[in-house]
Amino acid sequence: MARVVHFEIHAGDPERAARFYQEAFGWTFQHIPQLDYWLIGTGEGEGINGGLLRRRGPAPTLGQPVNAFVCTLGVDDFDAAFAAAIKAGASIAMPKTPIPNVGYVGYLHDLEGNIFGVHQADPNAA
Question: Of 12, 27, 47, 122, most Cβ neighbours within 10 A?
Fold first, then answer.
């Protein structure tokens, strides 16, 4: 079975994107100048790490349908994570939505127009 093992965020302003994700989620970034690529550390334990690179084409526009892979972040507290992302500059693509007996999910636009998901597991969600 295929699993997500790495993700990449494409950004017109990688430094701004790195600041956003560091402020919103505490991620760490290591720049590799010869590749103009940033390694992203998302923390210890289960989950995956990723990369950040300069966008090589037109940026998506707000309101357009998803045109790429969307990575969803598992969090312990949906409301706190959503609020932190919005405080850091994100905009809501889809508000908190219950998935009965699974949890809650919502989608945000980062500062580069990328859509990402936030998910909190909760078997009592209705």
Answer: 27
